[in-house]
Design goal:
Ribosomal Protein S8, Chain: A, domain 1
Length: 213
């Protein structure tokens, strides 16, 4: 008797689950049908608004071929621009652009004093250097301009320029020290420079912050 009662209860439970599933299925179908009717109504609204679409005839059409532009000497222009960027003047007035600290550092207006302090403390890792010892003035100017240009193109951020302390020069005066500052200020890639720390060359070198491209 108990087995028959349990079987009857299981059957009733199964019927309830089937009815629940059936109602869920019917609700899903009703939602899909409602969404389909809504899409159809929206399509009809577009058709009524736009009206009948007629394809344009293809006859009497002329396909115009755009004229080819005349060749331009791009490489020559690039070479001239590069040469212009490297043309550094010895007569450039740099004194008004240098900071009035003891090392005559330099920074462009968009560079903060904090950036200069970081450069002086060695915040940026040294990524390259050029040593101008033993070069004549014209050689040093050309080598420095090319070095700054190439370093910026390579994405270098901080480089060192060694110009010497002048110990081996007549009168023990540094020949390139003032000129190097004058040349660096003229390079647009140079954002700032400071005298190197004693461990990096001291008064015989500059740490330069570049606008890497």
């Amino acid at each position: 008797m108990n087995d028959r009662l349990r079987s009857l209860q299981d059957l009733q439970t199964l019927h309830r689950e089937l009815r629940i599933r059936q109602r869920a299925e019917e609700e899903r179908r009703e939602r899909e049908a409602a969404q389909a009717r809504l899409r159809e109504q929206e399509a009809r609204i577009f058709e009524l608004t736009v009206g009948t679409v007629v394809k344009m005839p293809e006859a009497n059409r002329v396909l115009l071929q755009p004229g080819r532009p005349s060749p331009e000497p791009l490489q020559r222009m690039l070479d001239e621009q590069a040469a212009w960027k490297q043309a550094l003047s010895d007569d450039f007035d740099v004194d008004s652009l240098l900071e009035t600290d003891e090392t005559l550092s330099f920074r462009r207006p968009e560079i903060t004093q904090e950036s200069v302090r970081k450069l002086r403390r060695g915040h940026w890792a040294l990524q390259g250097q050029i040593d101008l010892h033993g070069l004549r003035r014209d050689q040093a100017r050309e080598a420095l301009g090319q070095f700054i240009h190439d370093s910026a193109r390579r994405g270098l951020r901080c480089v060192r320029v060694v110009h010497g302390k002048g110990n081996g020069s007549p009168g023990r005066e540094p020949v390139l020290k003032a000129r190097v500052r004058r040349w660096l200020v003229q390079k647009q890639e140079v954002l700032a420079f400071v005298q190197a720390r004693a461990s990096d060359g001291g008064s015989g070198a500059l740490m330069v912050l570049l606008n890497a491209t």
